[in-house]
Amino acid sequence: MLSMKNISKVFKTDLVETHALRDFNLEVNEGEFVAVTGPSGSGKTTFLNIAGLLEGFTQGDYFLDGVNISNLSDNKSAAIRNEKIGFIFQGFNLISDLNLAENVEVPLRYRGFSAKERKVRVERALDQVGLAARMKHLPTQLSGGQQQRVAIARALAGEPRFLLADEPTGNLDSLMARQVMELLEDINKAGTTIIMVTHDAELARRAQRNIQIVDGQVCDFTMYQSGQTDNKTQSIADAVSVA
Amino acid sequence: MFFYYLDLAWRSIKKTPFLSLLMVLAISIGIGITITTLNVYKMASINPAGERSSQLFAVRLLSQDNDTWDEITPQITYQDAFNLRTSAVPVRQSAMFRTGLAVQTEDINFAPILESVRVIDSDFFGLFDVPFIYGGPWEKQVDDEGGYKVVINEDINQKAFGGGNSIGKTLLLNRKPYQVVGVTAQWNPSPKYYDVNNGAFNNSEQIFVPFSLTPIEEFDSWGNNNSWRREDIRTYQDRLNSEMHWLQYWVELDTPAKQQEYQQWLAAYVEQQKLIGRFKRPDAHGDISDVGQWLKEHNVVPEDNKVLVGLSVLFLVVCLVNMLGLLLAKFLKRAPEVGVRRAIGASRLQIFAQHLVEVGLIGFCGGVLGLLWAWGALYVLSTKFDLEQSLAQLDQSMWLIAPMIAVSAAIIAGLYPAWRICSTNPSVYLKSQ
């Protein structure tokens, strides 16, 4: 479903050239729940931004659902983001002026759904996260965990093929974090592919597959532990264990 | 999506009321000044003859001696007008000038009033499409033989007779009884193109009397009485025969053939006057100008007005530059929200459109407020600075033009801020919220 081959991302300034990702390779199959961990500055967010078509890349090939993402126009990228990808952010990123229903409705507006269709989907998505009764509330009237559930509802309303979650529990206490994680697991069980960046090793272990990004490269621990690894992963894994 | 963007724009305005008000004020002041000058310019530039503009002609003669006045005069003398009236070529024609008469009625309680009066031929009403409420012009016979007939407008009819059908009633003008034959509705062409000598934007006269009474009643001319030569004037008849009783002369020539024919007739008249020794200069000639040419030749809309409109547009530009700065600050502050919208599926074009709609709404509000400024400014100009009433009326088209200019100008000012916000990289802001 998601295939990145030899992806490189270089940030350039007048004086410095920073390699955020280098020879980055990753295959994610439909229905998987992949946790991405790694130290700060390792390239996790850059990977997520590229996966979510929010940023371009310097080199390599990226296929999403068989479509080559390189050199897509802004309109096509936006359409793919809207139809196939759902985003969940650490800071929830709800629009403070809009109530819950209006927040969930935003991606559906851009997709051109009718008012009737939007209403049905918004109610269903909010019901799925247990907040249907509070759809007229503003985000500021909710707790952090509830806000994250609204963000999840917004991501789910368009019925995306996969969810990209950037530290979805990072701003939540442990109870809220567990609830959100359980919700994500339920969503994954219903067939949605999830890639979740996290710092929390315990949450990462709950995913089906656990990869680590180190210095802009992938180390697939799940495959490493099962003995199915290549030399590169081996060397990164060794380096990580030495460190 | 337009209504969605409109809803977002309204929420955004409500969210930052002070900043939004500043922007609306900035554009409204620019629009107010622009619309004020534009309105004055437009009202001054109107060709009030409309479709008949190319059929109505002012007649002029270059008749003065050499080494006197250089240019063809805008009016003709009484004796020329008397002669031109004999032409059978025009469909309608009228000599005319402005005078002033004391107005009374047979009611001894009616206090006399001094009114400006237009001395005309009966064709005047048809020439200039003067609308009648009661009656009509006097008979043609009166133009030839004289007759104490008068046409008044509804204001004078109200003052003198308390309104209603006053046909047949008697109005005293300089104590002479005139029979009312017609009452006109309000008629006030602006500019007053049939006589630009007495102020192109003055109001029309409200009383009309026959030109044929001029030598009998010895009407004074409330107009130009200059002469290009020294003349010994002892009697009113001397004045009529002089080169200093100037008046206006208009003809209606409805086809190009008629126009050509009249010009030939006029050329023959000039030759005749040369033969009898009245027109001495070799290049003496007659000329006709339609309404459009006439207004242009007399510089009814001064160049200063155009300069003023230009300056006010420059002021609008300054206001828009201010608005641009405020918009930039407002939009860039919203970058994190835009980042979220981009992440969940909005294209750059959709973000661009959303912000342009907001700018357009601000422009529209500024346009409406600007109209109120313009209305107030015109009121102050007319009451405190004696701007002519006809120029101080807010033209109805301005209710459409002002918002259009305001919205267009605001959108132009908003293009750069909208482009900046839609071009920002969303990923930069998603982490930082």
Structure description:
The complex is a heterodimer of chains A (243) and B (433). Chain A is α/β, with parallel strands linked by helices and 243 residues long. Chain A has a single domain (2-242), classed as Rossmann fold (3-Layer(aba) Sandwich), CATH 3.40.50.300. Chain A is built from 9 helices and 10 strands. Chain A has a 6-stranded mixed beta sheet with strand order 6-7-8-3-9-10, with helices on both faces. The relative contact order of chain A is 0.17. The mean pLDDT of chain A is 85. Chain B is an alpha+beta fold and 433 residues long. Chain B has 2 domains: 2-47 and 302-430, no CATH class; 64-283, no CATH class. Chain B is 50% helix and 16% strand. Chain B has helices at 2-15, 17-45, 78-84, 123-127, 140-145, 154-161, 214-217, 236-241, 256-275, 291-297, 303-333, 335-343, 348-384, 389-392, 398-423, 426-430; strands at 56-62, 76-77, 92-105, 113-120, 132-135, 149-153, 170-173, 176-184, 207-210, 246-252, 285-290. A 6-stranded mixed β-barrel of chain B has the order 3-4-9-6-8-7. In chain B, strand 3 (92-105) and strand 4 (113-120) form a beta hairpin. In chain B, helix 1 (2-15) crosses helix 2 (17-45) and helix 13 (348-384) packs antiparallel against helix 15 (398-423). At the A-B interface, helix 2 and helix 3 of A face helix 1, helix 12, helix 13 and helix 16 of B. Chain B: Residues 20-267 form the MacB-like periplasmic core domain. Chain B: One of its GO terms (cellular component) is plasma membrane. Chain B: It is a multi-pass membrane protein. Chain B: Residues 311-426 form the ABC3 transporter permease C-terminal domain. Chain B: Keywords: Cell membrane, Membrane, Transmembrane, Transmembrane helix.
Descriptive labels:
heterodimer; A: 243 residues; alpha/beta; Rossmann fold; 40% helix; globular; B: 433 residues; alpha+beta; six-stranded mixed beta barrel; 16 helices; 11 strands; elongated
